[in-house]
Amino acid sequence: MKQFNVTGMSCAACSARVEKAVNAVKGVESCSVSLLTNSMGVEGTASDADIIAAVEKAGYGASPKGAKKQSMSEEEKALEDTETPKLRKRLISSVVFLVILMYFSMGHMMFGFPLPSFFDGNHVAMGLVQLLLTIIIIFINRKFFISGFKAIINRAPNMDTLVALGSSAAFVYSVIILFLMTRSVMNGNSAETTEYMDKFNFESAAMILTLITVGKTLEARSKGKTTDALKSLMRLAPDSAVVIRNGNEVTIPSQDVQKDDIFVVRPGEKIPVDGVVTEGSSAVNEAALTGESIPVDKAPGDSVFSATVNQSGFIKCRAVRVGEDTTLSQIIKTVSDAAATKAPIAKTADKVSGVFVPAVILIALVTAAVWFAVSRDVGYALERGISVLVISCPCALGLATPVAVMVGSGVGAKTGILFKTAASLEETGRVRIVALDKTGTVTNGTPEVTDILPANGKSENEILAFAGSLEAKSEHPLAKAIVSRCSQLGMSLNETEDFTALPGAGLTAKLGGMPAFGGNRKLVGEKAVISSEMLAKADELSSNGKTPLFFASEKELYGIIGVADTIKEDSAKAVAELQNMGIRVVMLTGDNRRTAEAVGRQVGITDIVSDVKPDGKEAVISELKKYGKTAMVGDGINDAPALTRADTGIAIGAGADVAVDAADVVLMKNDLCDVPAAIRLSRMTLRNIHENLFWAFIYNTIGIPLAAGVFIPLGLTLNPMFGAAAMSLSSFCVCMNALRLNLFKPHSTKHDKPAKGSFHSLPELNKGISADDTPGAKGNAKLMTVHIEGMMCPHCENTVKTALEKLEGVEKAEVSHEKGTAVLTLGAPVSKDNITKAVTDEGYTVTGIE
Asked: Which residues are catalytic?
């Protein structure tokens, strides 16, 4: 997406005009203009020159963003609120002269304030003083007139046009009255002169401009605060870095660090760019990026990220991602891009904004004409028309959505939740079904020791030391889990001799000169006696989705160690939170039904899709979407097709890979509780947008008829000055309402409740979707059963399953290490030789094919 700065916009009508002009340029696929940030995002192949020319032709200015490399501090400076100080000066000057004007025009009549004797009975002099003071205030606020009348010339009237027309009408009318008064004085008609004095509207013209400036000042101030989150992210980046050049430490600006530079970070300093630790160790606080306050230990080979804080040791690192490629820069870009896009809900407001100002001008003319026809009083008719002009506010409509999107995106970024577009921020809150990938999302993704069951009087440490020594030379994932547990406990392992791996069964070796065995029930059962009690415990482990590994010496069984891909600590809590929000949770996995159901029971998921291969997940998501808005939660790489297919794709644990193309929402942490948090934040932002739009529409719906005099029979009328005051506060109220989102806590369950329409009839889910429900697994597909020796755990199953499903013609493989079979669903003939080769290449033995 190309981004541009746009100048000269003052209201929603302006942004709609710019958007329309750029969308008409050849090669532009889409254009989104943000009144909040005065920026524009353009997708397509059109050149910058053509885009800028179209904007200028529409009467505005444009320039490409990022024309030159900027440091974070320079980018932050570009976001600084420069408009509020200018408006404040205008406002102070306007108020000073308005007070003097009001003293002369109304002070002596309403409050009896004294006037210089020169003005006694000299109405013309009073009129001239008011004229001069009004001209000064008009000059101070000349921007309204320049912008407003320029917009009329370009046939694109905006809010400034309404203000300029209203103020000009009151001023011109008052000038005409002053000339008529002067003529009366010259004719000696003093009674008529006094009558004319009451018809002056100089104070209305000046008051309108001053009150609108009050509103603009408040609006600019509140709009400036909506980018606070983005500016706080930019402040995180250190301005300088210490790099090694020719063996010496040199301090340079952070943006000048080059890839593969070696930089050093001392305790208490911020890490300048993304890199890899090459020397030293430390604990790094990554709260700035992930929101997680617990420091993360770093050692050589570990990744470090820009803006995180080195808390303890001295480390040397090699730069990997620099400049705009750092994780922090990508986060800032994501938040900025989200603000530059438009939420679908804003389309209605945009359509209204496009015709709003011309419609208001027409209503004002009709109002003035009707009241003149009824009352024959030019002054009163003009007052009604001016009231219509100055109370109408297209700004509130234009700001209703972008201010909420900007604040909501910023709140998410500070907690490690990144919405890539305004549309994704809106759609996430409408999700009714959440599909979770099991491995790496619900579970940790790596096997761990879960149970240690000693036998024959052995202790847990004895069996663990025995098993660790035996498995130390093995490359099997289950062996690594046992060795890792021993390492965590600081155990010293013994050397083995005559080590032999038996694929699919286990291993044998000599430990302390004595034969030792480890592996499945069949292997160890041939070497040692396994009691019925231990066999029952092993069956219980298997029923819970765990793999029982038996260990024995030549004489006796040492015990059983259960190994499994463990559940994340927060998985059950996250699932419960989603269900409390009225969301159905579905788990997708390539594992067999038994293992999947065991995991599902532990976390509270009853809707499970098992035995599904990676490309089958996309088909399942398509099926789920029939029952409601569906979100897919995965790692963003293996699950890319499913993430893309879902209404909302959520990539979890993205870490440094912020720009996951397939995902609509990126979760920096590997914390499943961020999923309900993202949905909560989206729901709250959507609610805030609804509130803003309601206020904007209802304000104009009630305000314009009131100003036009429709409710005069009920005794309700509106002076133009009060209309201007109401207009000045409308946009301010919208911005302030959006700023309330800064107080929202996405992880708080305090206000969780099911959204309307959350519960759907899902008969397929209630029965449990299986791989048979996916395309290609029905019809005349042929089944083939392959008998395999050597599989001993779910990891073996997945290895065989992946190998077989790569064969052309194999649509699906259901593999069971317990049965020692692989049931193939064939869409086309596959030779037995190819099947045998695929299995044996992975280290297993085919004993038969049926």
From this structure: 437
